[in-house]
Amino acid sequence: MNGRKLYQSVVEITNDLSNLVGIGSLNFYNLPFDKSELGGINILPSDEASDNRLDEGHDEWKWLDIDFFNYVIDGDMHPILHDIRFLITFRYIMATYKMFKFGVTTIAKIRIYAVPSDTKDSKYLSEWRASRPKKFELKKKFKTAWHKLVNNLDFSFHNWSHVDEFPILLIDCRFTKNVQESNQKDNFHLDRWCKNLPYIPAPISASNETLAIKVQNIYNSIPSPDISKYYNQSTTKNFKNLVPNAEEVIVNLVHNMSEGNTSIPGVKTQLYPFQIKSLSKMYEKESIPGTTLIPNFIELSSCDKKSKYYFDITNDVFYLKPEIFKQPRGGILAENMGLGKTLICLSLICMTKWEISVLPQDYLIFLQQTPEVSEMILDEYNELVPKNPPQYQPVKKLTEFCRQTITQNSLPWKYYIDEIPESIAKYLDDSPGYFRIPLENSEYVTPYSVQKSRRSERIKDLDEELPQEGRHFRTLYYCNTTLIVVPDNLFHQWNTELKKHIEPTFLKKLFISNQFKKEIISENGVFTSIVRFDPVYFLKFDLIVVSLSILSKQLDEYFDSPFLNIFWKRLIIDEGHSMNSKTSRAGILCRDIHAERRWAVTGTPTSGLTRLHMDEEDEEGKSSITNSPKRKNKYVVKNNFNERDDLVKLGNIISNFLKIEPFHSQPKLWNNSMIRPLVDDIYGSTASLTNLLNSIVVRHSLDEVERDIKLPQLHHVSVFLKPSFHNKLAINIFAAVLAVNAVSSERKDVDYMFHPANRQQLRRLITNLQRATFHWSGFKQEDIETLIHICKKALEKRKPNGDSVYNRQDVELLEKSMDTASSALNNPRWRTIALLHEMNYYITGLPDIFTKTFGTGVLESVDANGDQNDIGIFGAPHINQLQDFFYKNRFIDMNDETKVTEKLEELSKPFWSNYWKNTMKQNKQKFNKQDKDNDDNDFLQERIKMAIDSPDAPIPQQRPKPKPKPKPKPKAKPKSPTKKSAKGHKRRSSQDLDDIESKTELGRENGEGLKITNEVNTIYSLAKHNISYDKVRDAIILGTASSKLSYLASKLLENQHDKIKSIVFFEFEDSAYYLTELLDILGINYILYATFINTAQRAANLSEFSAFPSEKDGGITLIMDLRLAAHGLTIIAATKVYFISPVWQRSVEAQAIKRAHRIGQTNEVHVETLVLEDTLEEEIYKKRLNQSTEASSDEKKKYVIDDTGMQEFILRHKFLDMDESENEYAPFIAPANDSGKFAKKEEFDDPSALNDHEDVLTIDNNTIMRNWKVFLFNKDNLTKLNSAKNQKITRDFLKDQFIKSMVDEKDEQEDMNLKKKIGGPVRKKVRF
What we know:
Structural class: alpha/beta
Mean pLDDT: 79
Shape: globular
Largest sheet: 11 strands, mixed
Radius of gyration: 40 Å
Number of helices: 46
Distance between the termini: 87 Å
């Protein structure tokens, strides 16, 4: 077709409104009526009749003659009109206009119509544009002009025909400057387009929107499952007992839900309506796989509301019919944490247990080739016979034909399992259907195929003799089995949920985990650690739960796993983050496993897919132990995550696990088409990801969930505690070290701790400062002596005029630092802490002989009568030994000096020998366990030394190390410290010598006790002959050296008395160590859940906590590592939650809280975060309050020191006020849970009976406080000590009982009662 005819065809196509789609409108004023009318041709009635697109008064609408308009206005028209002229000229759009009165102004409303690329005879359009000269650069100019136009268009339905509604954009047609705002963003206006919104200027925030905010907004905008189309469909009665199809099942589910019936066959638990909706949507995706737009297409509504059209945001092309892709049979179940994802999955399995996987249409099938009968040979009778005669096939029986028809066509025969004979069912079970897939395809070779070397005929002949299975093809068996892969720590929870929600015999279950040392078969299922190599064995089960470690082992140890020979009906990966890596062992095997339906089940398939909700007190309502907080209903905690890594992980799930094309076959496409456009803020990038997630993710908005379910109230307060004496001293020493470093280095160069080169050491130092808010014993005495020396030398440095080289503020810092260091050195209790790394416990009422034998220090004290009655100080190991001594010898005459001394010596000698040899070493290892590099303090001291310009300044002599044969010590020469010495190699390698030094400095010569206790003076002593059993029995623990420890003990003691289960989350292991020590001393029940406990034992501990009979035996506490609280665990037995310190990342805190506050919780949950006043923790608390409103960049700060505000606080070098006369210990006092409950002192019928801890209620600032009188020798502690004697028996017993609880359907409460009856302890004391 020549150019004239081609253009004529183009004009005919574009002048027909039925070929166009209405996009939006513009409004122009200041029209050139002073020169001419606008012209244009009226739209013919026939045009309207052909498509009925015009309103009444169609004769008033005219085609816009943009060239004439440009001529009338002499070319001085608005830039948008120039863009319209270009687009109309090359027939990308068409435009009509109509005059309207807007007040006293006449305006022209211009309607913009797009010309779809697939409209009738659109090929002429493409051909005509292609014939234009290349120098026109049509595609590039079109994209630029179109984006400018979109940013100003009004897409609303109403403003398509009217000008009476605001907001409305009026454009001066003669304004020639470019008015596009610099902060406008294409994606913002694209969103307006999708929602048919009027013109709105892009907010400034649109230009500042970070990638993290964009990704989170996309995740959080995923719509709830829409099953509205099933509401209007009528249910059907299954009179003929036919297998219902998927649509009938969903319709019945929806109608039953609307009638209040949310039960599922085989499921004991009634589902919530939102769970029914998720279940229905999942079943729909599995059974009625649909199609959806490819991610770069968006669906739009024309402004006349008469048609839908589509826009390719990647290529900027309009379509009447879109490009689509087939949705996977599965997706991502991403309900928020605690909303019953496990129950939804189990319900789906029960509802479809009779369905069998079907041969997929897109699989390439291997067909066994029949040898051709072509060559003839002579037999023994000289007769011609085929070389390869066909094998005789006997006639099949009718039952075989039936079996083959049923199994090979995946007919759901198990739907009628109760109606067919058992022998037939067994016959069908033992002979499953199958198909084969080729492992190499010689018939199809792509340009990318790897060319293999030619194989010799001899090798080919040998191959013929080998089995073809696994070399040429793989056999896949049809089944009705669901394979669930779970992390090891959640394996027990799946078993628990199955027992809780599913009828015991409804599903045939197989559990495979390393927890089972031998195979166990019970009514509840089969439990084993062995993966059988026969794939047919697995087909008889409806559900197989396998641990992730077992699945990984299959890849490590076996070339061909039986899991690969089954075409599973369904593959479920619990906690989908385990599939985040393409190269992980489980990821590779899950990719290779063949499954009809696939689900990644997780509340966080990527870190930011969900928002976490939690109640917290407002800033004005911060709680101290003396005030009552104000309540807020709800806080939304935005999740913290690395958005780029987040997108990569999501891409792995989509391409590697769900195998969605084209991302599965083109691994790099995800990064190129999804991640990069989002990072670069490319037009339409957010819409592409939104479309994809909307098509594969099943999740509900929290608003919809809250309409169906109301969780009990969550109360979250921050408890502000005053630091104890030793808390203040430790924190001030850190402040002194940093202050001296800042002053001496003049805050510059690498000597300065805040220099970028010292980032790693600074992070560890600040982490230790956080640990010091609980308890810190990491500084050595020689470190403090060196600090004092450096302060003195710095203060002596003078200018020529005699003034100090430092300013007044720096001099004050040096003086405060020196005072702090001197306070530490002058305090014998601090020196003992630094040497022994023990927590100090302050005990009164003990006779002096006990303190001299087992004590670690003495605090002088005077009683109410003015008599000296010193307080004994002990570490936990020493108290344990003292308690053991008293319980064994409580019936001896305490005034018999010879007997008591003999008994004490008998016990103390081996105790102290073992203490110096083993316990000290364990304490140091425990204390330094969390430090990858233990030279932080040495490094910092070296930085201080190097910063001071006094090379000849003598360094204080360290105390001499003991040697086998004492020798005169030569006088040390002054030395300047070197970098080599700063690395601390000598100190680390001489740890044993340090232990000997501690023993020499503290211990008595006979090895029994410490010299520091020699001068103890108490009102009860052997010398006074006034010791009695009841006086020793009534000894009181006044408190501890840690405010937090004393507070937690008070709360947990009350919770045990009130039969309440609690969780304590710890971030640093040393704080958990000190806490468990005190709980053992007080006899408080607890269970550990920490990283150093293996996965199987952790699961057993969690089960024991949930089943613990608190009504009978009192409350119990689960002490949990915060790192293990992130995903999946359900701990709804707990109603009190404590955080030992503020959690820097609020999302981590919210995830931990969700362990207790989730579906199934029937009681209000109370959460307390402990904050030490006037310390770094309070600054962290204040910073966290503003996190939700600050820029997302703050959310990326993994470490506290990475935050600018935290750095500023630390650089203030704030010292806490200390009073030498204040009590060194923090007493056991805390706000009472319930003023109506308190412990009463018992009158002893048995003189030898032990005390129960007592309390006294007081009122402080309108808050009821509970003051505890904590007895050193108490009933609960004696019970725990007796239990500890059978640790090994108990450990084995508990392990067997845990396995038994998983296998049997016995109630867990009965198991715990059995443990009590046998008499074995249910916990063991753990030294970290």
